[in-house]
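re: that chain from earlier
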Amino acid sequence: MDAAPRTGVDLATLYAAHRLSLVRLAVLLVDELSLAEDVVQDAFVGLHRRSGRLDDPGAALAYLRVSVVNGARSTLRRRGTVRRFLARASAPDEVAAADHEVLLGESRDATLEAVRRLPPRQREVLVLRYWGDLSERQIAEAMGITEGTVKSTASRALDALERLLEEQR
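^ sequence. v structure.
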C-alpha cells in the first residue's frame, strides 16, 4: 500500500523546474540565502500538505509564489523582532563582509540598498514585477491585493526609489 498521497501535481517536477526561481525571489525579499531556502522549502511542504486539494499545476505555482511571499513577510517580521530585542540589549551591529562592496557593483549596490529601504509592500511589488517578471494579476494573487493596488503601489515605489537614489548621489 502506497502511503504517499496522490496528487495531480508532480511535486518533483515542480520542484526541479521552479525551486531556483522561487529561492531567488525569496532572497530578494528576505536578503539572506539560507532564510530564502527555508522559506521555499516551507512553501513546498505546504503544497505537499495540500496535495489532495490541488490538481492544476498552474495553481500549484501560484500557490508556491503566495507561500513564498507570505513566508518572507513572516521571516522579516521575526527578524525585525529579533533586531529590536538585540538593539535594546546593546548588541553590536552586524558588519558586512570585507569583500561585499567589491562583489557588488556600485550602481547595483546603491539600487539594492534603496530597494531595501522601501516599505515592505512597495519592495514586494517591485521584486515580483521586475525580478519575478509577473503580471499585475499574478502579483495581485501572490500578495492578496487588487490589481489596482499593484499599479498604484508600483507607481509610488518607483517614485520613492527614484528619490532614494537621488539622495545617494
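Residues 1-5 have pLDDT under 50 and may be disordered.
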